[in-house]
Amino acid sequence: MKNPSLSLFAAAAAVLAGAIVAVSLSAQAPQPQASQAPAAQAPAGAPEQHPGEFRPSRNWPAPTNLKVLPKNLTGQQVRDIMEGWAGALGTHCDHCHTPDPKNLAPNGHPRMNFADDSKPEKSTARLMYKMTQDIDQNYLSMVDESGPPVACGTCHRGHVKPEKFVPPPEEHHEGPRPGAPAAPK
Question: What is the pTM of this model?
């Protein structure tokens, strides 16, 4: 038979450990300063951050060379958008960005030169972003209940080159489909 006081002790220890972890995490979380400007609205296609979601904190540099994204985005917001795009295409930063051999990370690997425009994939990403914005603003906005906005993943679904759509084989039914015009006799 189990000792009830031992079970109570184990439960209390688990609650105490959970409280210690919660307090230590909240103490380490960066606190917003009152003097900071209000955060810019992230554009469509950015991954949504949910309240209470854990995101590793890092000071991302202010973005430079933004040509299609709003220029008032923070480094963290741009990084979150890029992370969403990379996930939608199943790629990593180096797909569109070039390494900078003069700027090494602590691990000795070159950091990405995010401002460099030499890779054609970066121009393609900008073009595709403008296309999705155009579809959302000028076409889907005119359709009642059109569903979620078009984003990279709508077509790419984790592949750099979208897979060819192959419609499922038609099912053969007796007689015409409901609503289909009658076959001429």
Answer: 0.61
